[in-house]
Write a structure and sequence with these properties.
about 130 residues, 7-stranded antiparallel sheet, alpha+beta, single chain
């Protein structure tokens, strides 16, 4: 069954600072905040590498990632788990190069996340 990102989740992802977590090959977690986020398909999220250091290395070694986002009042929140591709050229890199949110920033690469699981953080039992 395909995991689908809802319109409400898309709006929140694209208009918030989102936590993005990776893990090293030795299972050391890393968490960063990202703000250049676009939902590009009902099961794909695109983010930009503007400042990644450990995150870049982790993505190249281990494609399993997680993201979380909360509404400003904390009444709604979701976690997205999936696999990521780090793209330094091609279609997705061109997309991040053109994003107005990246103007004046490095936009070194595009990261395309194939969402496999979505969890409701505000109501974990639903």
């Amino acid at each position: 069954m395909k995991t689908l990102i809802t319109t409400e989740q898309k709006r929140l992802l694209e208009n918030s600072i989102v936590s993005f977590s990776t893990s090293s090959i030795r299972c050391r977690p890393n968490l960063v905040a990202v703000s250049c986020v676009k939902v590009v398909a009902e099961d794909k999220i695109l983010i930009t590498d503007n400042f990644f250091g450990k995150t870049r290395k982790n993505l190249l070694d281990n494609s399993m990632v997680s993201m979380a986002v909360w509404s400003p009042k904390g009444t709604k929140g979701w976690q997205f788990k999936g696999t990521a591709r780090y793209c330094t050229r091609g279609k997705w890199k061109k997309v991040v190069d053109r994003m107005k949110e990246n103007k004046g920033l490095a936009h070194k690469a595009a990261v395309v996340i194939q969402v496999k699981e979505i969890y409701n953080l505000a109501s974990p039992n639903s």
